[in-house]
UniProtKB/TrEMBL annotation:
Lineage: Eukaryota, Metazoa, Spiralia, Gnathifera, Rotifera
Domain Aldos-2-ulose dehydratase beta-propeller residue range list: 92-190
One Pfam family, short name: AUDH_beta_propeller
Organism in which the protein naturally occurs: Didymodactylos carnosus
The protein, known as: Aldos-2-ulose dehydratase beta-propeller domain-containing protein
Length: 195
């Protein structure tokens, strides 16, 4: 048993804080607000306690990347989209990245860096009220540690009505997305034109 008596559970994802530590996982619920890292319990005979990374209002989806380039994986996460699909935040949610403190991983909450509202980050809200759901591309500024927010552009705003999940993959060094939505499974890609 890893943890008992959880009040909520929504997301779980394998997470390796750096290239040297064993793979653990990040988990959280929609309503409990606690984003936690669970170190790999197979590497010790003692009970492993979860490390509280941050508290956010209704965290939804996350991804991971070494944004600072220091060898430690950071977490990109969206939150505050609302309590349910019908009780959503009319102003949209937020996207932040949480800076991995490296060797001090469990001593204090990870620092938040604001990306924007609903390398580059694709923001895909689940719902947008009665309107279509926009697919947003956020570009991180050169100074990621001190920026107030990143620039954004709308990739698509007329096709999707309810998005559940998206997965990124590469074809010929270009990012592609598979998007699972009310409309079905769709492939969003960059059309590379030969000039």
């Amino acid at each position: 048993m890893i943890e008992e008596h959880l009040k909520d559970g929504y997301w779980i994802e394998a997470f390796q804080a750096d290239d040297e530590t064993p793979i653990g996982f990040v988990a959280y619920g929609l309503s409990d607000r606690e984003i936690s890292f669970y170190p790999n319990s197979w590497t010790t005979t003692e009970k492993v306690e979860p490390i509280r990374i941050q508290k956010l209002i209704n965290p939804i989806a996350m991804d991971q990347a070494d944004i600072t380039g220091n060898g430690f994986k950071d977490i990109i996460i969206c939150f505050d989209y609302g309590r349910t699909i019908t009780d959503f935040n009319p102003d949209g949610g937020h996207i932040v990245w949480l800076e991995n403190p490296g060797q001090n991983i469990g001593t204090e909450p990870w620092e938040q860096h604001y990306v924007g509202r609903s390398p580059t980050i694709i923001g895909i809200p689940i719902v947008n009220g009665p309107s279509d759901v926009p697919v947003l591309l956020f570009r991180l500024p050169d100074d990621v540690l001190n920026a107030k927010a990143g620039d954004r552009e709308v990739v698509d705003k007329e096709f999707f009505h309810l998005i559940h999940d998206a997965k990124k993959f590469n074809v010929h060094s270009l990012d592609n997305l598979l998007i699972a939505s009310r409309e079905g499974l769709n492939w969003l890609y960059i059309l590379k034109l030969a000039l």
